[in-house]
Specification:
The complex is a heterodimer of chains A (300) and B (447). Chain A has one domain (74-259, 276-299): MetI-like fold (Orthogonal Bundle). Chain A contains 13 helices and 2 strands. In chain A, strands 1-2 form a two-stranded antiparallel ribbon. Chain A has helices at residues 7-39, 59-65, 68-98, 106-118, 121-131, 138-145, 157-185, 189-197, 202-213, 215-231, 234-239, 251-261, 265-289; strands spanning 42-43, 54-55. Chain B has 447 residues and is of the alpha/beta class. Chain B folds into 2 domains: 27-168 and 324-390, Periplasmic binding protein-like II (D-Maltodextrin-Binding Protein, domain 2); 170-322 and 401-441, Periplasmic binding protein-like II (D-Maltodextrin-Binding Protein, domain 2), CATH 3.40.190.10. Chain B has a 5-stranded mixed beta sheet with strand order 2-1-3-11-6, sandwiched between helices. In chain B, helix 3 (49-65) links the parallel strand 1 and strand 2. In chain B, helix 3 packs across helix 15. Chain B is globular and about 65 Å long. Classes of the chains: A mainly alpha (300), B alpha/beta (447). At the A-B interface, helix 12 of A face helix 4, helix 12 and helix 19 of B.
């Protein structure tokens, strides 16, 4: 008589296979976070032995949360993320809808559009620094053709903020584009065909059928872009170093300066915890709108 | 005479003879290097014109000594992070590290670099003909000494931790062709400089004076260039911040005028942008580090070859030109300290200093500036020799906290004044509390 495996045995097998991946994920994900939180309770300067680190308790957190510069840079980050991610989502979706069909030469354009995403952020910063250069930059040269006087793009608070947003949109719209076009390609063509038979035109088809069907993809894309927008550092480091004044000093730039210039690793860690909390809240908010991990939604 | 006495006498006579005859001296020098032949010295260096020049002469060192050199060249503003991480390890990858003068006290405070006297006192390593007194005094004191008055000035307690290599002062460079065409004279005082800015811009059609202006270290550096000649200071003798004094405000007002009459976008300029604007003919004057002298006549980088004259950094209430730039030190956790010292000694020797200057680097020795062949190649060094008399050793407070004050406090206030968001008074006053806090935290002030 054949033995039937007990139910708890299959659960054990599942755990057996999942455990190595889970351990690696925990080690890679949780350990740095716990270390950062722990560091927030110490006053430690780079280049000195850890044994010299001084226990400060909640002091770093109290100082950080009472520092107006932290809240100012958080506000700058929120503005930066809101404007750049909104523009990227809109442009990325629009581009994907425009290029989703089997139009001749589209493969070339799709490849071309995703190129900026592959460029290293430092190179992106340097490229845009040259483009925005007041004396020799092509942007001012183009404006001169139309009789517009040269502008100090990186020397004016409003223009510098616009400059960092433009560079972010240039680099990361392709990411939205590639995610959305993959989502659109996965839509069952019979659904679209049925909608067309029912008389749906392009706009109705897009708004009522295509976008709702890729809502999960849009949510995940939004979350990933938000997280990245909150962590942006290299491009701003090269373009403006947070200036003029502190007008483009996003939170990650402030963390960098606190850690590596102020040599206050504890305070920098405390601000990192704040950044983590904000990003987690925004992620939760975005996933509430459409969570691909939840069961039974949209029939998937 | 016993055999031992004979040998002793012979030894002394030999050393004396070696001093007289270069061939024998060369042989002794060879012996100095013999033990380290085949070792590799790893250097941390910045992307900087002086170190580009050094790269050209390094093969001579390897050929002469058999010691190899490996360079880790990175952007100047990323160098400190990497050095701190390397030097904090039990054994680091760097044997010789280039540092900006502002880092010297922090590195010593953290016990990351070693004093150089033991090496110079070691007859097996030290070159008897090195001539420390020939190194430009202002450079040596500012770049190398730590532990003296205020922790960074020459005086009782100061010890030598590094040697200047790529050190510099400030000088005024101007376009001779433009000045002659419009009948202007190079300004000798800050009063003349101020009066010159607007008409020079108007008549030349280009920016009057190129300057740094980017938020952080860059704009503070530009402000310090004017603060010192105008008689201002960042701190008083008791470490109280006094940078918002009338002199400090006056220096910032002048800098604002320079920005307003300079090339478009100066308030966003880092050092490279500022140099480039002058080299590409976008400004009629330049007032900053002397590294410009090696760049203006390089046709690959400059459109103004042969059109530049030099004058002393203008006088305010006194002459006070910049002191700073780059130096070399040996990390405490270096693997090959002796070989690193031999390279340091060779690079800063009289012969190598001439070579690096000829290759476009900064001279570190008076003998180089007085060398007829060098003066023939660089006749403008006559004005540099004069300028070196006015190097201000206390040009900025080189304390471990300076980076934070410089970039996160003053760098914001000065920048906001340059963009017009705040007046010069408001800009400086607004960062007073932050600087006071930093000084309290550092233990300089009670509270």
């Amino acid at each position: 008589m054949a033995m039937t495996p007990a139910p708890h045995s299959s659960a054990r097998t599942a755990w057996f296979f999942i455990l190595p991946a889970a351990i690696i994920m925990l080690a890679a994900g949780l350990y740095p976070v716990i270390s950062a939180i722990r560091l927030g309770f110490y006053d430690w300067s780079m280049g000195t032995p850890w044994a010299q680190a001084r226990w400060t308790g909640w002091t770093s957190f109290q100082i950080v949360f009472g520092d107006p510069a932290v809240w100012r840079s958080l506000w700058t980050t929120l503005k930066f993320a809101a404007v750049s991610v909104s523009a990227e989502m809109f442009l990325g979706v629009a581009l994907a809808l425009a290029l989703e069909g089997n139009i001749r030469g589209m493969a070339f354009f799709r490849t071309l559009f995703i190129l900026p995403m592959m460029v290293a952020p430092i190179a992106v910063g340097l490229t845009w620094r040259y483009l925005f250069d007041a004396q020799f930059g092509p942007i001012n040269a183009l404006l001169a053709v139309f009789g517009v006087a040269a502008k100090g793009w990186l020397a004016d608070e409003t223009l510098a903020f616009a400059a960092i947003i433009v560079s972010d949109i240039w680099q990361w719209t392709p990411f939205v584009f590639i995610m959305v076009i993959a989502g659109l390609a996965s839509i069952d063509s019979s659904v679209l065909e049925a909608a067309r038979i029912d008389g749906a035109r392009w706009w109705t088809l897009t708004r009522r059928v295509k976008l709702p069907m890729i809502a999960h993809v849009l949510a995940i894309t939004l979350v990933m872009r938000l997280i990245d927008a909150f962590r942006v550092l290299e491009v701003i480091y090269v373009l403006t170093f947070g200036g003029p004044g502190d007008s483009t000093e996003v939170l990650s730039m402030y963390i960098y300066k606190t850690a590596f210039i102020g040599q206050k690793l504890g305070a920098a860690s405390a601000i990192s915890v704040l950044l983590l909390a904000v990003v987690m809240f925004l992620t939760w908010l975005a996933l509430r709108m459409s969570n691909p991990l939840a069961d039974g939604e949209n029939g998937q | 005479m016993k055999r031992r006495d004979l040998l002793k006498a012979g030894g002394v006579a030999g050393i004396l003879a070696a001093a007289q005859f270069p061939l024998i001296r060369g042989a002794l020098a060879q012996d100095r290097y013999a033990k380290y032949r085949g070792q590799t010295v790893v250097m941390s260096v910045p992307a900087h014109s002086h170190y580009d020049a050094m790269t050209k002469i390094l093969p001579d060192f390897t050929a002469e000594t058999g010691i190899k050199v490996e360079l880790d060249k990175i952007a100047m503003n990323r160098m400190k992070d990497k050095q701190l991480l390397e030097m904090a390890k039990p054994q680091g990858d760097y044997d010789l590290a280039c540092y900006i003068v502002m880092w010297k006290t922090e590195y010593v405070k953290k016990d990351l670099i070693v004093p150089l006297e033991p090496f110079f006192q070691n007859p097996a390593l030290a070159d008897p003909n090195y001539d420390m007194g020939d190194i430009i005094k202002g450079y040596l004191e500012v770049q190398g000494l730590v532990g003296g008055p205020k922790t960074y000035l020459p005086g009782p307690g100061a010890r030598l931790y590094g040697l200047p290599y790529g050190s510099e002062t400030s000088i005024l460079a101007y376009r001779k062709d433009i000045f002659e065409k419009h009948g202007f004279k190079p300004p000798q005082t800050y009063g003349e400089l101020q009066k010159l800015l607007a008409p020079l811009r108007e008549k030349s059609g280009i920016g009057a004076l190129s300057s740094r202006g980017q938020a952080g270290h860059q704009c503070v550096h530009a402000w310090l260039l004017h603060l010192n000649p105008l008689g201002g200071q960042v701190f008083d003798e008791n470490w109280n911040p006094v940078f918002n004094s009338p002199e400090g405000v006056a220096a910032l007002k002048i800098l604002k005028e320079i920005v307003d009459t300079g090339p478009v976008g100066v308030a966003g300029y880092a050092q490279g942008d500022m140099i480039n604007a002058f080299l590409q003919g976008q400004s009629a004057m330049y007032l900053d580090a002397i590294l410009i002298m090696g760049l203006v006549n390089d046709p690959a980088k400059s459109k103004i070859v042969g059109q530049v004259g030099y004058a002393l950094h203008p006088k305010g209430v006194r002459y006070a030109s910049q002191s700073g730039g780059l130096g070399l030190a040996i990390p405490k956790n270096a693997k090959n300290k002796d070989a690193a010292f031999l390279l340091l000694q060779w690079l800063t020797s009289k012969a190598a200093d001439i070579k690096v200057t000829q290759a476009g680097g900064n001279a570190s020795r008076m003998s180089t500036l007085n060398n007829p062949a060098i003066l023939k190649q660089f006749p403008d060094f006559e004005i540099l020799k004069e300028q070196l008399k006015y190097v201000e050793p206390d040009w900025r407070p080189i304390i471990a906290e300076w980076d934070e004050i410089n970039i996160q406090a003053l760098g914001v206030g000065v920048s906001e004044a340059l963009t017009g968001k705040k007046s010069p008074e408001e800009g400086l006053n607004s960062v007073m509390p932050k600087v006071t806090d930093i000084m309290k935290r550092g233990g300089y002030l009670k509270g």
